[in-house]
Amino acid sequence: MDKVYQISYEIEEIIDDIKEIPDGVKMIKAPDIWEDSRKGQGVVIAIIDTGCQKDHSGLQGRIIGGKNFSDDGTSDDFSDNKGHGTHVAGTIAATNNKDGVAGVAPEARLLILKVFDKDGLARNESVIKAIDYAISYRGLNEEKVRVINMSLGSRYDDLDLHMAVQRAVNDDIVVACAAGNEGDKRGETIEIGYPAAYPESICVGAVDLNKKIADFTNTNDQLDLVAPGVGIKSTWPGENGGKYATLKGTSMATPHVSGALALIINKCEREFERSLTEDEIYAQLIKRTVPLGNKKKEEGNGLLVLTEACSS
Hints:
The chain is built from 8 helices and 16 strands.
């Protein structure tokens, strides 16, 4: 039986107009390293999600291409019929143009890979095809995908999906995944979601803007770190250049990590004067976490804070 993946999030507010750096972006200290990291310039991040509003004013110049692997529409139609993917894209890389919101890495480049249909469901085959497409992608200057963001999940383990994640990691692509939103407010219990629970993935849990563990976030022994996932303002589909929305979920925490990875890649590769492997990038990410005093099953290595590590 083909496994089905779902998105889980809650809309807190739809906003017509906004001009700010969101609190989540500031909380992880992304603006503090924008200069050293060139705001993630040139780093390609693949977003496997519901698609994206490619003409959103907050995402102009960020989207370099896309493909539709879902059952809705043609293969070149990666428009967003749910909103989720547009929101994720904005948290990663909304343009810092003093209008709308700024993403964590506002100069990163986004490859939009749509896998969800109008009902918010994605077939296992679609997700795997999207991962393999991201692995094989080459841009005009032979640039490749460095990060895959998957704010999606299923309770069912699947060997084929696991192998696809392994193929990406073996190609030095970092794979960031949402832990899931089935938490029961008890840190000692285990809630598992895939692909986040695969050891090769980065499993991202959520905290609120007061650094408290979100009551919905999954807790388990595969959790790598936590990031802001409550009260997250980002881009949202709409007419006349798009709208903005405030959402919550581990889906919202994960793109903070994906954007941060773009900043880390640029900063560290300039300092080391060479390309870093996937495990080296992961190590640099984990160096930039701060323990919050919770159980490891609740917070992993701690809260992402980009100013916390030296480069060595």
